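A reminder from the course coordinator: this example appears on the midterm review sheet, so study it carefully.

Given structure:
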């Protein structure tokens, strides 16, 4: 803004601008790079001013200068299925007692179901090994048909016992 004076004029700039040496040009002051800002974390220069911002996981306070941690666990912005634990700028998920992380990294599996699955897999392997052993006995030796029937009945018995579990 310039003001007419007797026989001349004077110019000045709005807040956030600096009058150049020519006496008529105003340039923006970059408060972020010259250190005159009071932002606690991130400063972004704007025309004639600046704004303060926060890192991810934080929110700008009402004073528009400082940042506070966002508690994702209480505000519902987390993706945890069972347990959410807030940390500075973030959060992490966990599982209740008796559960363990699923391979997807986001959900929890019941330990009993996991244990039963692996027990079932172990029984299947054991059953397969027993059948293979019985078949190997039949293949290696010349066994009379009545003995093959006994071995076959024993394999069925093993099959029935393992299916019971």
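Designed residues:
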């Amino acid at each position: 803004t310039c003001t007419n004076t007797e026989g001349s004029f004077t110019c000045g700039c709005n807040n956030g601008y600096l009058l150049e040496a020519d006496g008529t040009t105003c340039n923006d002051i970059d408060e972020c790079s010259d250190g005159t800002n009071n932002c606690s974390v991130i400063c972004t220069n704007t025309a004639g001013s600046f704004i303060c911002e926060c890192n991810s996981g934080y929110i700008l306070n009402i004073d528009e200068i400082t940042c506070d941690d966002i508690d994702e666990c209480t505000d519902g912005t987390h993706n945890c299925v069972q347990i959410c634990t807030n940390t500075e700028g973030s959060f992490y998920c966990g599982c209740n007692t008796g559960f363990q992380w699923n391979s997807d990294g986001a959900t929890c599996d019941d330990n009993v179901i996991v244990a039963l699955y692996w027990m079932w897999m172990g029984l299947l392997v054991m059953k397969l090994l027993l059948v293979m052993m019985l078949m190997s006995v039949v293949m290696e030796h010349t066994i009379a048909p009545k003995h093959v029937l006994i071995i076959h009945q024993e394999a069925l018995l093993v099959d029935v016992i393992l299916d019971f579990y």
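Confidence is low (pLDDT under 50) at residues 145-151, 157-165. The helical segments are 31-34, 72-75, 111-140, 145-164.
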